[in-house]
Amino acid sequence: MTARPSVLVFDVNETLIDIDSLAPLFESIFGDRQVLREWFGQLIMYSMAATLSGVYVDFFTLGQGVLRMVGETHSVDVSENDLSGIREHMLTMPAHPDVEEGLTTLRDNGFRLVTLTNSPPNPGGVSPLQHAGLGPLFEHQLSVDAVGRFKPAREVYDGVCRELDVAADQCMMVAAHVWDTVGAQSAGFAGALITRPGNAPLRVEGLPQPTVIARDLIDLAAQLS
Question: How buried is 151 (Cβ within 10 angstroms: 0-12 exposed, 13-18 middle, 19+ buried)?
């Protein structure tokens, strides 16, 4: 890094909270826990397709639609209870074990901590971060819903800078997904890739490479200290 960032902007799903906690739901619907990863990959793909096409529906609604679509491809009848269940589970996933300690260390080391998620706000309800016990650690909880476009659209990261009144070069995006760090770095952020299981750097010449690669948030805090 050429300069220490002052603001750490965290992705939420998979980076902070554990989407593998959804696996029992997929086992009950499909008889196969691994369908979770098929569903999540398609959810991300179709969120990007919606943004590139200039249309928008919120992430939870899209997640329900993708669940129904995956059900059709597997010849499985996805019920209304299943659709309600996926939304409820997306709101109540637990944090990864390293997250609270890593965030606390980063905050104590003087970083401003905010989140930026594809998930919409939960008006009048408890956010996934609050349910996971992480809410008090963050200055702001930001959603792509405010701009009606999904990550990694440039407008999403520009919106963070406007909201916080900071320059892009003061920010570092922290995510378990290369598509998120590439998007943020293309908008002028630094990027920290958290290599959760199933996630690794994309070493392709011409694409922005992560500024920092860490196995978890405790490792990230140590590298940024």
Answer: buried
User: What proportion of the chain, given as a percentage, has pLDDT over 70?
Assistant: 98
Domain ranges of the chain: 7-18+93-224, 19-91
Question: What pTM, to 2 d.p., does this model score?
Answer: 0.94
Region label for 146, one of left (φ > 0), alpha (ψ between -120 and 50) or beta (otherwise)? alpha
Query: Is the peptide bond preceding residue 152 cis, with omega within 30 degrees of 0?
Result: yes
- In whole angstroms, what separates CA 106 from the centre of its chain? 19
**Percent of the chain's residues with pLDDT above 90:** 86
- Please state which CATH number belongs to domain 19-91: 1.10.150.240
Give the pLDDT band (50/70/90) at residue 2.
Answer: low
**Three-state DSSP class for residue 173:** strand
User: What topology does CATH give the domain 7-18+93-224?
Assistant: Rossmann fold (3.40.50)
